[in-house]
Design brief:
It is a single chain. The strands form 2 sheets. The chain has a two-stranded parallel ribbon. The chain has a single domain, classed as Rossmann fold, CATH 3.40.50.720. The longest helix is centred in the C-terminal third of the chain and has 14 residues. Helix 3 packs across helix 7 and helix 4 packs across helix 5. The chain is mostly helical and 139 residues long. InterPro entries: NAD(P)-bd_dom_sf (IPR036291).
Amino acid sequence: MKNLLNGRPKMIPNIPLNLIDVRDVADLHIRALTVPHAGGQRFLASAAGQISLPEIAALIRQKRPQIAQNIPTKTMPNLLLSSAALFNQTAREGNLLVHVNRQLSTQKAQDILKWQPHFDNTTIVLDSIDTLIQYGLLP
């Protein structure tokens, strides 16, 4: 997040992300500890849907303009990212992230633990930004 706000990289790779708020993770953990038949099982936690890095950048520009002056406005084409990945480790990692299958289901957590995420992607991003500002980690 800090790199994005500092203008690095100059173009934003179109990487989709699944997000989860730490408060939702804590809720899921408590439920997993207190539901007897949840022992030994694994549960996925994610807010509904995905949000891409360009969407995150646009959201910050719109809702927190006071810290958005350095955020790049251009999205890096996937072909350019793939080409850069041949020579640059960071681009290589980004290229891998572009191609990760992020289709996941929290249905098991919903069925067994009666869990639902409370925070959507927009809230997660904005609350994260606000926390970074509050603790002096962003200007």
